[in-house]
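Dear support,

Our group has been running a series of protein-ligand predictions, and this particular one with adenosine-3',5'-cyclic-monophosphate is the one our PI (initials K.S.) wants archived with full inputs and outputs. We had some confusion internally about which version of the output was final, so please treat the block below as the authoritative record. The input we submitted was:
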Amino acid sequence: MIHPDSMLRRFWDLLVAAGAITAGVDIPLRIFLPDILPENLLNLDILYLVIFSVDIVLNFFTAEVHEGKLITEKGFIAKHYLRTWFTLDLLSALPTDLIHHYWASDNPAKGQIWQILLLTSLLKLLRLLKLLRLKGSWDRQQLLNPSARRLMFSLFWIALIGHWIAIGWIAIGRQDASLTSFENYLRAFYWTVTTLTTIGYGDITPQNNIEIIYTIAIMITGAGFYGFFVGNLASILANIDEAKSNFRWKLESVESFMKRNEVPVSLRKRVRSYYNYLWDVRKGNDQYKILNDLPLHLRSEVSMFLNRDLLKKVPLFEHASDEMLRELCLALHPEIFMPGDIIFRKGESGSRMYFISKGRVQVTDESGQDIYATLEEGSYFGEIALLSHTVRTASIRAADFCDLYSLDREVFENIALKDEDFAAGIREEAQKRAIENKKHREASKNLTNPDN
Ligand code: CMP
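Confirmed final output from the archive:
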């Protein structure tokens, strides 16, 4: 059994789609404007027959996704296929073009039957309906951006329908004998575009009743169709990068809020650069909204993936169990700071610690003058107050744009109960830092008070 989403099936579907599209372009031309095409299209006819027939056979061996379940039972698949697409596939695989090819070339009395036989090859166009199925399968697999997909399919159908309308215009008799077939087609297509888009320059006008009726029909459908397409196009283009347009919209509303409230220009600049950095590192900030919609097991897997960089950077996490990392990832809260931002001050109470994913921070005294240490990616801070339930022993200032993840005391304590080593590692480091600071303070005291 072939899986409906397997590479083989995807490739085959594309091949069938290419066959159907070629037939959609070539067969109407063959009937109404044969001179425009090369004389011998036998290879194409054989190709249609092979692709469309093999497709029928393959469809009997392709598993079906039914209500989210993969069904591989042969009987069910055959019955389902016979009930749905089989008739259409069979009609479009009929080799009427091939029969016509051999029959018409040997038979001098071509006449009307010749024409009817040729007309039946239009049945191949039924295959184009399969493109709807292909679109459904692309939608399911989320191939390409959804808006790009919509745009591609819309443009394709417009071009193909335009082609058919142009051939219809030729079929009802609008051909100039003094022009080549290609020139006639070009004019017909030009007429189609100007009529469909309701531009109607009036240089090509209907000359008889049938042409007038045809023009009216195309104008009426064209007006609706054009309005619908232009309206849709705007929304498709706006949504091509939905995250970016949402973000731009948010930025604009923040900007106008700040203007209305007369926020000082320098502060406005900082807010703007915060949002720009947020876009650069997170591509929008809606990941937590999206995560909240997921069931817990998926949420933890996605957040493990999103936090993979941080997990790799922090040496403390290297030996942690999978279960602990999952819990940790779910609890980590992203925070962004800009250069110069004070993340917290010495003496403040604090119940969370921070891990550095990007950027550097400086550990300073309350005045910010004395720098005890500079911490980089993969490091952490804020653990002393968290562990000892006391106030912050130092101030922390962002030296660059900083991408941090904070962890609450409650979660930390939960994790510490399960993973002794993790908590012990942090406690050890906290002690070392406290001792270092003590030494540092004493040294600077001695420096200012040499008599001691
Ligand atoms: P906490 O006291 O909660 O807040 C300030 C933080 O700075 C502290 O936790 C430590 O994480 C960190 N810190 C303090 N002293 C040092 C130091 N000497 N080296 C590195 N980090 C420090």
